[in-house]
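Ticket reopened. Same input as before:
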Amino acid sequence: MRGPTTVEPVPGRTDELIINMGPQHPATHGVLKVVIGVEGERITRAVPHIGFLHRNHEKIEEARTYPQIITYTDRMDYVSGLQNELPFILAVEDLLGVEVPQRAKLIRTIFFELFRIASHLVWLGTGMLDLGAITPFLYTFRDREMILEITEKTAGARMLPNYFTFGGVRRDVHPDFFKDVAHFLDFFETRLPDYYALVLDSPVFQARAVGVGVLSRERAIARGASGPVLRASGVAYDVRKAEPYDAYPDLEFQVPTRTEGDVFARFWVRFKEMEESVKIIRQALEKVPKTGPYKGKVPPRVKPKPGARYRAVEISRGHLGTYVVSDGSERPLRVKHRSPSFANLQLIPDLFVGARFADAIAILSSLDPVFGEVDR
Amino acid sequence: MSLFAEVWEAVKAVGAGLGAVNKRISEPAVTEFYPYKKPEIPPVSVQFLALIQNEDGTDRCVACLQCERVCPSQVITIERKRNPEGKGFVLERFDLDFANCMHCANCVEACPVSAIVTVGAFEHAVYDINLLKADKAMLDHIGHEARVWYSPKFGVELRTPEGKIQKAPPEMQPGGLAELLKAEGGEAS
Amino acid sequence: MSRMPLPADRLVQPKLVGYDPTRPRPWLERLAYTLFFAALWAMVILAYGAVPALFRRFGWLSTTAGFLAYAVVEAVLAFLLAAVVALILIVVLRKYLGKVQERVGPMHYGPAGVFQTVFDALKLLGKEDFAPKRVDWLIFRIAPAIVFVSAFLLMVALPVAGGWVMADLNVGLLYIVAVSTLGAYGVVLGGLSQGNKWGLLGGFRAGAQLVSYEVPLALALLAVGVYAGSLRLSDIVEHQYGVWHVVPLFLSFVVYLVASIAELKATPFDLPEAESELVAGYNTEYSGMSFAFFFLAEFVELFLLPGFMVVLFFGGWHGPLFGLAPGSFAAGVLQSLYFLIKVAVWVWIFLWIRATLPRFRDDQLMDLAWKGLLPLALVGLLVAAFLRMFLEVL
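Engineering reply: fixed in the latest deploy. New output:
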């Protein structure tokens, strides 16, 4: 339906150019379409259009049994695939009343944080590509490749492993796993100074990012933003602290927060989050027993008691929540996902209007949307 | 004066970036020459699925329909009949449509006899999508070609050059760490 | 139903074309790139040294017919040189970016991919040169030619060794300014004529950027002219026998460096074609050879702007001659090598900057040109004038 969301040219106004940015545009991170009006280089109007990647996740999931659904949750935010499985699994575990062994929790946490680093590396590379620097893209993807190889060795796939399950993880880790992760962390810490030199400390980047796309604290809360976008606007909200899950209560970490709310702050917060993730994984590696159970006792047929449960986790992009309603059968009555990128994307009209065209690209990459999760 | 200091800081920062780029010039390239050099895929990796036959050529599969039931995209089709000689069932047909497969390995998890397994082969690509529909002969063939495979019940298994099926050493097994640590401890004591 | 082919049947080993990158032979790769450089050197000797010397030796230049023949031969040679330069620089850029990005870059065609651009050019030649329906056809077709011709005309004035120049103009500096400005027309017209909004925005940006940076660039050149006391490029080079101009005219050099990167439309000033913002900017709708002309021109300029930088600030062809008489052919050969090495160093620095920095925004670009570089260029001009005055007094 062509409703009030489309941008129509104003009759008699000749200085405004209406451009369809996307869905085939190099900087829209997939299939976002933004219809923008520009006056020279300044954006006067912006209307985002989503839904090009809609795959009907929630309806399909009503027709699948609980273990089958885990496979589908992976496909939402494909950049940080493994993280998406967790809220659904936590909700069903609550409904089932399954006890998860501590070792399984720690393994899950290690993977969860590894995927946070992987996702932020993708964001950093593509974000810098949007800002015109090609080299960081190849560096970050090379580092991410190491995480994906570790994941493949243990979990059986690189991006969509389907590895977490009710009561723990699907199989025990590969014998090299702890060694590989420790090696990756050492390696990654030697690479971080380069990223600082190429990105955060670079004067050209600072010129592009400081004071651009400022999002006030009130606006961020009102629009339901979450994750690094919210934390860059001065709200220290992190699900890992607010409603701790898995092994997070036992681990010590900071929630990096900045008050400026501009593109630079969002980049900074994600940089610091990668450093925090390294610390979290190091702690978890110290705590995790080398051997032991990796899965709790789960009935062979997963049939939760009738009831409903909402659980949320802090994925790389923010607050991902899953609401599961069970009627006691093998299939859920309803599954609803609350995805962070979708909420963050609502900020586009707020942030784009008044910005320059090149700023719009920087703002979009600082929001870091993934369209598998926006459209679901 | 602060202007000069600012400019100097900016020049230094650009220099740091240039240095970060330049020091990579001596590092070896990470490019993989894929079609010419094939990578090693770990056996747990979900690429091809295969049916494994015992050393005497009989099917491991007991036609229990577990894999067909757990498959989220319903790509497995099994037809079976009563075993005329004894109890249980025999397979008549086992079709697997790789074109629609989600590579979740739920079937491998569900199999009670480790008949359907993940193998390290990964080159699926064909020009006609209909050619991705595998039948039992095909799946058996992939199983025969496989040197190493994984299933949760038996872990990673190897096929020796003589055709014997063996359990792989603990260095390759998920959860093989327990055995390795025990062996280390045994040597130490 | 046709059956799924067995894996053994479809494990078709792709056929290797030419060089086998899985078994690298570093000596062969180095030799190939050295030969490439030698080919460039030979082309330079031929175009700038041998042919003019031949014409002068037989006194053909004094007749009208001889002069016309000289012009035609030199034009062909300059075109070939431009093509060779672009072919080499494109593959060097790709190889260099590959090196610093921890990958291998082109690798199949020739040792370490030396012939990659040759095959790329053949591919572009074979492609349809498509013009969309709504383009302004004449301007759309002329624009790439303008861009290429402006880059190619600059070759005429480049002095590569003592007395080695196609046309030793007494207004060489003015010629550089005039002809390099011509290229901006091509880019702007190409952007505006194609009836595409991305191209339009790219054309706007190119117009603003190229015209703005022409001003500090011209002022930096003027400073050199004032200091050397001549607009003739070979005089300017001769003037640097005591000390290279980069020392007294450091400010002008900085201005020239920044402005020439902007003229090249290279990162961090690649706004007109910013691929992540404007899809492809001013050359969005170009394909086939029209696109190739834009591309070639960019890389010819990547040779010429460092080339003029070396001529103006780094003593041109200066270097130890080992007892060869200045002005002799052998001395010219050696001097052109010095010149090419200096240019190669600067091209490397340009590529290095290109690999490192992100892109500026359009308003920052304008700020840098008008608030940063223009005052700096004026101060540089002032410095040059004062130094000249002192030299005259002394």
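The mean pLDDT of chain B is 82. Helices of chain B lie at 2-22, 66-70, 106-110, 136-145, 177-188. Please confirm and we'll close it.
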